[in-house]
Amino acid sequence: MNTQDTQREHAFLDFALETGVLRFGEFTLKSGRISPYFFNAGLFNSGRSLSRLAAFYASALHHLEPEPFMLFGPAYKGIPLAASTAAALSDHHQRDISFAFNRKEVKDHGEGGQLVGATLQGNVVIIDDVITAGTSIRESVNLINQAGAQPAAVIIALDREEAITENGESAIQSMATLFDLRVHSLARF
Q1: Residue 118 lies in a domain
Q2: Is 93 a catalytic residue?
Q3: 107: annotated active-site residue
Q4: Domain residue limits at 180
Q5: CATH number for the domain harbouring residue 73
């Protein structure tokens, strides 16, 4: 990790603490495991906090290869992340990146379908808050492949670095290996 990445990681963790997104205590996770901290990205729920979060994502994505790429935000938390990060890339880095997202339920009226936004094509970066078990990443990779596009990378806010497999791999390591994807995070904790 270079100096710029380290500075961004520290600034992001400070921001997560300031906004109450990252809290310390004793928390029971969905898996039933007890954790000394909890990261709730749903608390990035104001225009100011979402804009600042998107700026962190945009900064991390600015030099990402291969280029060009588009963003895909898995429903539900990935939707505002994809839209706001595309705007931040345009505003702060003069990069006009298209984005798309999925619906949990296929729509059979109006424009119909499961995908909304730009047509999935070329290199696609999946953007989400965290990877816990990898379910949304698996679903996203399948949707991207079905559209004939190439899943190129994943970016998340926080890498919990938790082992989820019998051989001690984290969810991120598992997804990276399974789908041959680069996985980036704003912070590791």
Answers
A1: yes
A2: no
A3: yes
A4: 46-188
A5: 3.40.50.2020
Task: Report the chain's mean pLDDT, rounded to a whole number.
Answer: 90
Catalytic residue among 10, 92, 107, 184: 107
Residue 16 belongs to a domain: no
The Cα–Cα gap between 158 and 187 comes to 5
Identity (one letter) of the amino acid at 25? G
Give residue-wise pLDDT tens across range 25-76. Answer: 999 877 777 889 999 999 999 999 999 999 999 999 987 776 778 999 999 9
Q: Is residue 28 part of a domain?
A: no
* Residue 14 counted as domain residue: no
pLDDT digits (tens, 9 = 90+) for 40-49: 999 999 999 9
Burial 109-118 (b: 16+ CB within 10 A, else e): eeeeeebebb
